[in-house]
Structures are given as structure tokens and as C-alpha cells.
Amino acid sequence: MRQQALAGLLTATVLRGVACADENDTWAARAQAGYSKTGGTTDTSSANALFHIAHIAGDWKLLFGTDGLYGSTKGETTAQAWNVRGQVNYNFTERFYWYSGASYIDDRFSGFAYQTLVSTGVGYQFVKTDATKLAAQVGVGARWLKPQILTQDAVGGIISVTDLPGENDVVLDAAVKLEHSLNTATQLITAVTVHSGRENTMTTALAQLQVKMTEGLSLAAGYQLVHNSQPPPGAGPSASLTTLNLVYEHKNKDLAPE
Known about the structure:
Elements: H1 2-23, E1 27-38, E2 44-57, E3 60-73, E4 76-91, E5 96-107, E6 112-128, E7 132-152, E8 158-163, E9 167-181, E10 186-197, E11 201-212, E12 217-228, E13 238-250
Antiparallel strand pairs: 1-2, 1-13, 2-3, 3-4, 4-5, 5-6, 6-7, 7-8, 7-9, 9-10, 10-11, 11-12, 12-13
């Protein structure tokens, strides 16, 4: 039921955001969803959804993003995660900006019940052309963690969870993102984010190849790797995700969704 509720919430958010994006040229949005199922000796299924939206108001830029993931093997839940984040940018110049943001990550299989971050810093758009966009930002933040000890069975399902005391620390918050059009129909999107503190360093790397089918719809193949430097006992340090998604994108010549 939790997975169905999450999927419904993401779908409703996507539909409302897409409707808003189509009404005003100061908006841009990207929504994507994917599902796979295999049968036979090992019955597995997985689903993922993502929604990003951005809006310009003068020198201000408002960003919001959410995504979710669910997977099962032989009827057992073997992947379940969702996160939400928001960011406000203020442009000092056409390329140099200040940002302030917050994020909440809930990954049941990461060894952390949650990771919450509030951060602020500066960013710069190194390349800003129709074909290529390269931007980086760095700042500091406060993070709250809730470690857990996980016991899993041979399939990967969780048998038991032991909560550990919550932790908080000061972190370095950094991110780099590249979007490059290989041709009129093919786009490469890559991004790396790092939240590094005393208690844990979480690094997320993403690469996605997107092929346009129509003006608004594309197919995308992606790979994501998440690494936690100090996971609690019972949780591995790294987790990867390979996806094939249908993507809807409302682009804006002045604003690319992030």
C-alpha cells in the first residue's frame, strides 16, 4: 500500500507540474517513469518515477524535485526509496549565483532511516550554450542522520531493523552537472553530488542518454551509483540502479530543469 500511495502521489505531482509548465514560459519541467518485470525462476519487478520543475521570477530561480523507486524479488521487497528536494537561487550575474536548499532522503536499504540536509553556497555556470550546459555549486550545510542495523535474507529482503541513535554534523555540499546535445535528437545528462561530513560521505553519480521521439517525449537509458562511506553494519557501501524510462520534457530556452 505504501508503494501504491507513493506512486499515486508522484503521478499527481507530475500531472499538476506539467500543467503549470505548459501555461507559462517561465517554467520548465522534466518527468520520467519506468517499469520492468521478469518471470521464471526468479520473479522480479521494479518501478521508478522522477519529477523536476523549475521557475524563473526575475533574478530568482526556484527548483523542486522528487523521485521514488520500488523493487521486489520473489515477492519480497528488495528496493524502496524516495527523496524530495528544493532549492532557491539568486543570480548575482548571468552565470554566478547564490543558492539555498533542503533535501530529505528515505532509502530503506541504505542503512539510514533518513538523511536530511539544509545547505547554502554559491554556484557558477561555466558553459551556457544551446548545445552544452555545465554548472557547479559548492556550499556548507547541516545534516541529520538516523543509522539502522539491517538484517537481510538470501534474496535481499529485510528480516529485522535495529535503530541506532540519531547523528548530526556539518557537511560540504557540492554538485556538478553537465547537459550536452550530441545531435538534434540525442542528449547526454551527467551529474555528481557530494555531501561530505564527519559521520558519512554520500556520493551520487548519474549518467543518462536521452533520445527524442517527439517534441516532448523521449526514451532514456540511465545509470546511477550511490556510495556511502560509512554505512551501518548490514548495509553495503554502494548501490546502483539501471533504468529505461519514458521522459516528458517541457523545455525553456532561458531555463533548463535541474
